[in-house]
From TrEMBL:
Pfam families: MDMPI_N
InterPro entries noted in UniProt: CHP03085, DinB/YfiT-like, Maleyloyr_isom, MDMPI_metal-binding
Natural source organism: Streptomyces albidochromogenes
Mycothiol-dependent maleylpyruvate isomerase metal-binding domain segment(s): 12-126
Name the UniProt record assigns to this protein: TIGR03085 family metal-binding protein
Amino acid sequence: MSTHAKRERLLLADLLEAAGPGAPTLCDGWTTRDLAAHLVVRERRADAAGGIMLAALKSRLDRVQAEFAAKPYEELIQLIRTGPPRMSPYALKQLDEAANTVEFYVHAEDVRRAQPDWTPRELDAVFANALWSRVEKAARVLGRKAPVGVVLRRPDGQTAVARRGTPVVTVTGEPGELVLFAFGRQEAAQVEMEGDKDAIERLRDAKLGIAM
């Protein structure tokens, strides 16, 4: 596993372990146990994980995920921490970095920011740039369901268009916060929005991002 994905994996496992199996998350309706089961199924059960993206496989995904959620919580945490089996596509370093860096970062924040005493995490510049690169490349996909035009902007002025259209809302924040916003965690993301007041409210309530 490569640097960012490996670090975020271990951090996420630690957060899940510390929170315990019944803690809330930012994932609608999911406890930490549900999130842990999702992460394990995603890497270890390709036959069911397709249901994350394909509606036709959703019932199978729900069934398999429920089976994993019934396992001892400590076992789920260990499976996350040790990573995918050798035959999993996620065992490839390049795919692990590409697919899991943002996945694990967002879900780590799902755990952290659902707790009442959470504090902002300061990201190093290299990791922040890595997150920006990913959200910049995926901006059009992440913002395709936005009801208004959306521009993502870093404090240094770099921008990415998430959706063309009018009125336009400009969302400014650090890369990690923009990732959270673009992946549908608008209320939890520490960003500033500029634009028409009604457009801002519509964007705040929109279903952004993709299934994770």
